[in-house]
Each structure stands twice: as C-alpha cells, then as structure tokens.
Queue: 2 jobs
Job 1
Amino acid sequence: MTESLLTIGEVARYLRQDATTIRRHIQRGAIDPTYVVILPHRVRQSYRIKRQWLENLLQGNTERERTLSLCVCVCHNGKE
C-alpha cells in the first residue's frame, strides 16, 4: 500500500500559508520528520509531506501537531 504524498504547495494552499512558511516549518523541525520525504533536486531540496500528517494536524492528534496548528492559526489571523 502506498502513502499519499502532498507537495509543499498543496499543503500551503490547504493551510492558507505561503510555501516558504511550510519549508521553514520543515527545516526547523516543527513538522515531524517522519512525515517528510526529501527528494533529490539540483537547486534546492524538494519535499513531500505525508497526507497523514495533515490529517493529524487538523485533528490535533499529537502535541507537536497541536503546537503547529496554533502557530498556523496565529500566523494566519495576523495576516487578516
């Protein structure tokens, strides 16, 4: 069985964030590395995020997801 992977852009659109913000979350470890797939790329690293991570974030299943969810909400509300 294969896992469904999302691009940075797909995750960013769903969370109404900029793709750069999602990359920063990955690089800072805010997104659990077990849910991140790093693809080889010449210019910069290309990432895919497992759909399960997004589902966990939306459901607040773990402390890390609850913390990131709060961060996303605060950042998003600051833009409105």
Job 2
Amino acid sequence: MDIDIFRLAYVRSIESAGGPVQKVAISDTSGDIALAGPTADGSPGSLLQLYTVNATFIKSITCDEQITALCFSCAPEGLAVNSVAAGLATGEIRYNCF
C-alpha cells in the first residue's frame, strides 16, 4: 500500500501474484519495489516480483529455493545497472538485474 506522506492519504496497493508477501525491499536510488513470497501454485521455492515506484509491474522470477532476505544495490542511476540481491535458505546469494 502506498501512502502520500504529505497529504497522509492512501494512493494505491500492490497485489502479489503469489501468496502472502514475506520480504520487501525498496531501492534507495530509484524507489523500485521488490517483493518475495511463496509461489502461486504452492510448490517449493519463492516468487520474486519487481515493481516501479508507481507500483507498475516490471517482472517476476521464480526461484527454486526459499528467499530469506532481499536488498537492492545502490550504484548511482545512469552510471551502473542496479540489481536485486536475494539471500536464500541454502546460504546462497543470487543477483538479478532487471
């Protein structure tokens, strides 16, 4: 749910394509939003979804392992491609560039 902090008013909600959202990360540089939660079909693993700062859907990726942590890189916009890092239950860290 987005809230306008200047008017303290509801703006819009983001509906997850899978189950309930378990992890959220917001980019400090672009405001993009990453959501992670269970897959829609209930299979093992996680669904990673990316939205713009205006809650427009960009892309989703299904991961075979459970995502336990999320964060965005914070390189300056226009000079580098920012990515999402996902920490997995197996101890691995995966990077995704959208």
